[in-house]
Specification:
Elements lengths: L7 E7 L6 H12 L5 E5 L7 H4 L22 H7 L2 E2 L2 E4 L11 H12 L4 E5 L2 H6 L9 E7 L2 H17 L2 E8 L7 H8 L3 E6 L4 H8 L6 H13 L4
Amino acid sequence: MQRGRRAVVVGVVGAAGGVGASTLAALVARRLSRTTSTALVDLDRGAGGLDVVVGIEEVDGARWPDLHGAGGDVRGSDVVAVLPRWGACAVLSADRTRPTAVEPGVRLDVLHALACEVGALVLDLDRGTVVDGDAPLAACDAVVVAARTDLRCVAGTLALRPRLDQAATRRGLVVRAGASAALGARDVEAASGLEVWHVARHDRALATRAERVGPGGRGPAARSADAVVRRLGIAP
């Protein structure tokens, strides 16, 4: 993905399940799409599809299974043209009704094509592939780890650290703090060895709002995305 790339590539991964990593990835992509052409890409093999997360599962357009023959010299403009849109953001999602694996070569060719076409590429990374060394971390300009203030997320972040260190890319934590949590954000930072980029309070209305209209609004989750973009310095 490196040669000829012009996109800023941001990876988002959860320190554990249920920490809101997919939602954060979506909101970072939406924030970036205000100022540059942006694609949001689903690489989480165990989830039900980013199209469901952002509420466009009924919108026509290609999903990963439709691109099984897109290996080789694929044009980024052709890929973007067939993807469904979430506002200004193109979305390449898994398909909950066709949970077929994407061949690694096809995945890399499609990601390369998108990175050469758009201004920003946001990857919703799969924890398992990160730990196994199969995620495209080296192609990322930055990786954001979403976490809660608990021991499970500390352990999960430590499991990600060797691959993050190997990739030598910028990385930081977005921590969701809980009122009853035994740990604070700085405890997670100290224990995991990753810098905290933003601390968000729990967004109680997020799930209800997302069920109606997809993630958005001006709640804590959206402010987390704004903080990530400001930290990276990739949008005004």
